[in-house]
Amino acid sequence: MRMFKKILIANRGEIAVRVIRACHEMGIGVVAVYSDVDRASLHVRKADEAYPIGPAPASESYLNIPKVLDVAKRSGAEAIHPGYGFLSENAKFAQACGEAGVKFIGPTASAMEAMGSKTRARQAMEKAGVPFVPGTSRGLESFEEAWQVAARIGYPIMLKAAAGGGGKGMRLVHAREQLKSALEAARSEAERSFGDREVYIEKAIVNPRHIEMQILADEHGNTVYLSERECSLQRRHQKVLEEAPSPIVDADMRRRMGEVAVRVAHAAGYTNAGTVEFLVDPERNFYFLEMNTRLQVEHPVTELVTGLDLVHLQIRIAAGEKLPFQQEDISIRGHAIECRIYAEDPDNNYFPSPGKITLLLAPSGPGIRRDSGMYEGWSVPIDYDPLLAKLIGYGTDREQAISRLIRALNEYFVGGIKTNISLFRRILRDAEFRAGQLDTGFLDRMLAGKEKKAADSAANVAAVAAGIFAALGATGASPGERDGSGRGATASLDSKWKSASRREALH
Amino acid sequence: MRMFKKILIANRGEIAVRVIRACHEMGIGVVAVYSDVDRASLHVRKADEAYPIGPAPASESYLNIPKVLDVAKRSGAEAIHPGYGFLSENAKFAQACGEAGVKFIGPTASAMEAMGSKTRARQAMEKAGVPFVPGTSRGLESFEEAWQVAARIGYPIMLKAAAGGGGKGMRLVHAREQLKSALEAARSEAERSFGDREVYIEKAIVNPRHIEMQILADEHGNTVYLSERECSLQRRHQKVLEEAPSPIVDADMRRRMGEVAVRVAHAAGYTNAGTVEFLVDPERNFYFLEMNTRLQVEHPVTELVTGLDLVHLQIRIAAGEKLPFQQEDISIRGHAIECRIYAEDPDNNYFPSPGKITLLLAPSGPGIRRDSGMYEGWSVPIDYDPLLAKLIGYGTDREQAISRLIRALNEYFVGGIKTNISLFRRILRDAEFRAGQLDTGFLDRMLAGKEKKAADSAANVAAVAAGIFAALGATGASPGERDGSGRGATASLDSKWKSASRREALH
Amino acid sequence: MIYDVIIDGKNYRLDLDHADGRWSCRLNGQALDVDAVIARPDVLSLRIANKAYEVKAEHVAQELHVWVGSARFAVEVRDPRSLRSRARAADDHGPRRITAAMPGKVVRVLAKEGDEVAPGAGIAVVEAMKMQNEIKSPKKGIVQKILIHEGGAVNAGDVLAIVE
Amino acid sequence: MIYDVIIDGKNYRLDLDHADGRWSCRLNGQALDVDAVIARPDVLSLRIANKAYEVKAEHVAQELHVWVGSARFAVEVRDPRSLRSRARAADDHGPRRITAAMPGKVVRVLAKEGDEVAPGAGIAVVEAMKMQNEIKSPKKGIVQKILIHEGGAVNAGDVLAIVE
Predict the structure, then answer these.
(1) Class of domain C92-163
(2) ipTM for this prediction
(3) pTM of the predicted model, to two decimals?
(4) Is the CB of A498 inside 8 Å of chain D's CB atoms?
(5) How many domains, chain B?
(6) Which class is C2-78 in CATH?
(7) What is the number of other CB atoms lying within 10 angstroms of the CB of residue A284?
(8) pLDDT (tens digit, 9 = 90+) per residue, B48-66?
(9) Residues of chain A contacting residue D44, judged by C-beta atoms under 8 Å apart
């Protein structure tokens, strides 16, 4: 058993930086790869080696298996960490790594395949006695079959693409009159999105909670569960805020969910880190939804409440080490909440907002962890996911975690692009949220409500400040005289302000 | 029992920022005070109200009781948090607060007085059955008395000023021939430093460990101990790096030390947060040294291993709340280490190095807490303590805490002034340190050894980079042509580099 | 110096003077005790009668936003003595330039020069980070100019079209 | 462009060209595959033959320090074509300017103009953050000029005295 000397990270952004940190902490060299628009990205700056792998479109760079493996070979990397997204759940890639003699840090290709199709996963789980939402465990053959199944389990029902993800190919059906057109729509969307028309039925749980369980399995047959994460806060089927533990899970429920998750992992012959997702109904019944065969975006909340480092453990497991603890050694302490900081415009329906970051003030201090892929002066490219950073708050209890996060969000400032920072201030102050009353419909309901406006006295302050900025030469008295391009203008302001600042410091 | 609405923070720098954060987390308004050279300090930017209290010398501002109390009155602050240093252990100030109807967040004046004189504290502790180093519990009357006591307890002995602190008025005496001149020197230094000639004798423990125990006491008679901190790494009797737990303290020793600490607190009628310091000899016997009647610089390591927030708890206690837990609820998990980032020049015997911070790259990510009072563009004033920030690493175990800290220190860059960041890289890689073999002589011994030089290949990289900086217009080809003042040059470079950066981004 | 600061359609008349590191300030005729230090570019540590504020300035495309703590204000600063700024203010009633709020790629152009458009009519579709955004006409009028083409890239603040 | 870079007394001859965003580089005659991007002022993301480095430049007083990761190098960059830099290099053997390494207050002046001083002889005592630092003569010679007075403030890089 020998630790890797060099690991290639087949990813970008905050997760590449997070894995780089883990490698450096373990004394392992890091090979980064980057597309043309990512040359100035933080993960390239922080790596020990960095190789260009092609143009901006992911299909020609981060998703290109031969290019990634070629860099692994040239650099002498012994293992590849895929992060999340991109190639992380691609069984062919895991397979190709094995054939190229490079260790894939994640589960085996066959475990991934077992979990890759939702219908096949359901079949396997049925055998293992895992509870899941009533419905079909295989694709619907015909409209008649759909009609019969729906009648048996009762409306509302959910149509889902077998190859699905991200809400694509999903349709909620309230009554049988809607079934036919919904089935056709789901199928054609599934075809378009995944190249696979297969669609199945589940009983729809209205406004369920989405709770998931983190597991770790070594290559010697040991599997443990760590903690659950409450991930009910979603927009467009994308998670926005996650926390651990869940406000509704007690020690007994945690043990039961954890044991089911371990059973799921065993049934799939699963190794490394993975997550079993459950739907939870208002009576706290939980149903197997799917297994994510990779590190999750939201893994930090589990790290904070268990005191473990999941990426360190992923690497140790991939290097053949046994888990350094057993189930009874794992305990949960305190509460952690993660905010996903996206480049999104809250005033424009959270549409992505890439661009140049002109000013960055980052929070720190007690109970605050920041995993970030951005820096001041960096231009967020238009080509990838808008996730910029994750701000994670820890506290003795949920209330303290919330209050520390609000404090840190108030310190956080990302200038030049729009971000969803203000959204989190709103969520964290919401009375229902603070009471722990969450479900997957929460966020849409909250956003449909009215936002409180800033006080008039703050506008007075803004007016005074704007005048002072102008007087110090930071803003030309007449905006029409400013340089046409935002960039040029900002740069010239900067230098004027610098002299102003120096003048101030000297008097 | 009502929480404060507004708290005045009678301090500056990182500790003022840390207390501001706690107040904001608790929904409490913050009143900052600042001296003339601190107008641009971070604590002023982050406060809700800020009042000037006079010129740079602390005696005319931060130490000036009437001025601080005047601001409390004008602003309507209901309580004062003194931080550490300045007025934090000044019994007269605690007294004056009470008289002005403002709550002092800390122990009572009488508890402070009981602990303020080392000889009086020894007398009280003798009664309470607390173990301490053999010696006199009152000032020496004469040389003859000193000679007799020293002969009785055996050399080496330590002479100490009763009013002492910071190593002033201390003399190590190896043999009786040195006693007379050492006593005279210690007395006159004590006179000069504290206006008090009183000196006493203790048996000298050569290269002891310095381990301290954090306690919390509410105003209803409940006192608990939290965790010990190992603070053996010192230079010029100043702590440099602290950790929790101590590598040599096991559960039994922790319980015994904790119980003694609680006894000390009870004997003094102590309330709020406090720290009982012990000397520990190579056989792991521990001796009471003194009690620090305030929040310590190094409190974050205790927060990380216990999951508690000491400043929140200080404020709750001062507001009259009972401790929200009992001794058996407190547990220690993981390991935490703090590095005190000082503005000091490692190449000039760690002489203070104030000045303008031209570039600041701050670490973050898993297991890293940063409590900082600095920002890019700020000029560190020449008038106060050189502590800029604290970097605290947490890990599942000591090894992981160390490796995370090394990783974070490698990310940390403070340009424009000298800092002791490189010192910590050296300590954390030291074999003896990693083995937990620490004592108060460790650091001087390590610094007397040779430092490893950077590799030649890194010099090649530096040469190439210097050329590229020059070619991009960042550094004039001939240094003689540069602007005479460091500041002017840097500023003009900045703007040139900005254009270069933009050019780069566009190609 | 006198400035008219416009926030949310409301005008704030500001009379500012700066001498020897001290400010004198009147806001709508009322004297304020103001003390200000630029901490770093775009960051102002502001005190008004001992209340402290961290104020950030943000320049996105042509717009200036001023953040007081975490509240954002879209701000326009005019020098009432300047003809130019008055002229520009009048501009708002003439042709309207439609600008990109963020960088992206032009996926489709929906209108052509000479088209009559209603308020809210689509002008173009811009894609960024795998999401598509329809840029709409802010008013009824005639499309005077289309300054983009399908497949092209746009930057924040770029003018996409002009509606008369 | 050709530069002589001096690090630790060693000379590195650098032949650099930059065109179309690409660098060509020879270090002491040996060709290197170099790729560089300024991430932000004073921070360079440098690749040499696929090895990646974060390099920081730091200007303290008159000195340029280049940090490769966490290793610091005091660097002097000379353009061999410039007469001026050559002239300056020769300067080192003439009068020596004694400069302050950091800001502080002058507590005592220990030498006066015309004094003969030995190497290591105290010239002045400067205090910062409650600690006092004795500034020493780097060489044997005559104190030509004292440019400070007791109680005065000095900034980093300020010339305190000149020893001939």
Answers:
(1) mainly beta
(2) 0.89
(3) 0.90
(4) no
(5) 5
(6) alpha beta
(7) 12
(8) 999 999 999 999 999 999 9
(9) none
